[in-house]
Amino acid sequence: MSLDRLLHELTIHYRTRGFPTSALLHLRLTLLSSLDTTTNSFSLDTAYPSCDARIGDLLGCFQPVDGSNPRITKVTPCAVFGFSFGYRMASWVDGTHPTDELEVRLRRRPGKNNTELAKIAESIQTTQGLPLYLQFEIADAVSSNIPIVCASDRKDLVTIEVAATFLDHARNTISSVDTVVLLAHQHHFERCRIILERMGVACVSPNRTYNQYDEYEAQPRVMSPEEYIVNDFFSMARMFSTK
Questions:
Q1: Do the beta carbons of residue 118 and residue 110 sit within 8 Å?
Q2: What is the pLDDT of residues 86-124, one digit of tens each?
Q3: Which of 61, 85, 55 lies closest to 13 in space, CA to CA?
Q4: Residue 130 in contact with residue 148, Cβ under 8 Å?
Q5: Measured distance CA(186)–CA(84) in Å, rounded
Q6: Contact at 8 Å (CB) between 26 and 7?
């Protein structure tokens, strides 16, 4: 019964986040195949390693996502916080992982996803005049005439590290960091929102969203919604375990 309830909650949660049916089915099959019936938990190696999630601990955590988030026309955010989604590689070096620090600095490129996110950032900055805090993969795709207040270090960083970088900078330059425009891929938005909310920052959506995938994507976990949903689930499960 608890498994059926969790699968039901996950279906509603990810459907309201805009994931396609193919991704929902892929997550369901992946979880059923990774279920350890002796411990009633899921265990699967993903980009977020060794996340053993017990069904009982996850019940009630994955709630429907309210699509009526306030837009920037209804509130006054103090900045734009932009989180990247994947990347491309200019070239590949045998025996070297693309997350190696030197590879990140020399060969990582924004790719289609971050280029589209950069266009949204430029539009917000031009029309609203908000300072841009951008993960470097997005910052690299922003036009040279658009000012960027803060770009993340050129390292392979997880979302929470990027958020901490933005907040450290913003709290030293802005009197109050209460609300920001959260710029992220539609399927990444909710996890970013939860991370910032836990840091005491409310989020509003931009007037445009982006939900496509890059056909030349180099980051394995964001090559498709089917790949991404599995990694998102285990990352969210790990976050909920530390709530």
A1: yes
A2: 999 999 988 888 999 999 999 999 999 999 999 999 999
A3: 61
A4: no
A5: 11
A6: no
| Digit-coded pLDDT (tens) for 65-89 | 986 555 555 668 999 999 999 999 9
Return the amino acid letter for 217. E
Domain locations in the chain? 1-67+220-243, 80-212
Output the six-digit token pair for 227.
């790949």
Cβ–Cβ < 8 Å for 94, 43:
no
The residue with tokens 């430029």 is 122
Q: Are 121 and 82 in contact (CB under 8 A)?
A: yes
Q: Residues 119, 139: contact at Cβ < 8 Å?
A: no
CA–CA dist 177, 193 (Å, integer)? 14
Phi, psi of 135 (to 5 degrees): -60, 145
Packing angle, helices 225-241 and 186-198, rounded to 10? 10
For tokens 């059926």, the residue is: 4
Domain 80-212 has CATH 3.40.50: yes
Torsion (CA) 195, 229, 189, 242 in degrees, nearest 10: -10
The encoded tokens of residue 154 equal 């050129």
Residues 11, 68: Cα–Cα separation, whole Å: 19
- The amino acid that residue 51 corresponds to is C
| CA 83 to centroid of chain Cα atoms | 7
CB neighbours of 32 closer than 8 A, spacing ≥ 6?
A: none
Exposure of 19 by Cβ count < 10 A (0-12 exposed, 13-18 middle, 19+ buried)? buried
